[in-house]
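Pasting as-is:
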Amino acid sequence: MIARLEIDNLALRRGGRRLFQGLTLTLEAGEAAALTGPNGAGKTSLLRAIAGLVASEAGTIGFGDLDPDLARRDHIHLAGHQDGQKPARTVREELAFWTLWTGGTSASAKAAAHTLELAPLLELEVRRLSAGQRRRLALARLLAAPRGLWLLDEPLSPLDAEWRLRFGAMMAAHLAAGGMIVAAVHDPLPIPARALEIGA
């Protein structure tokens, strides 16, 4: 499990434009960070850089004593703003795919479906879900295959007020168990989190 996230003097450039430079952040187990800033400031790019999907221009990203490749392969969940789901799959098929891909089991997928109230929807095609239901399906993988570091891009949109509170409780439980969260947000997270303004 990742016990520490260390970002030191990071600079990112996308499409020939430097998004930011000199960014530094350290998170310990049980801590969360909320990335704020205007659209285009680099919040999503920072999440993708931590996940190893975007190369940095300068600086380093470390995961305590873990090898970065191992940490990214086995200990990180990235839940993007776009859910990345196959519309023709059923909810059951989509959840099973992501659960097995990230190291969970059929039993853990069933438990996640129960927690996020997806069980009545399992035989529906993903294309028939509401936006909130699709987001709950995307977030189910966090519970179905537990990993230490959650990278979340606008996780509360488009959840309604009740599900924002319920997912907040899930995030709090993750932190209490020694996990970490880095979330790009426009709305405040329903958990204590260190604020980091990107592009300030």
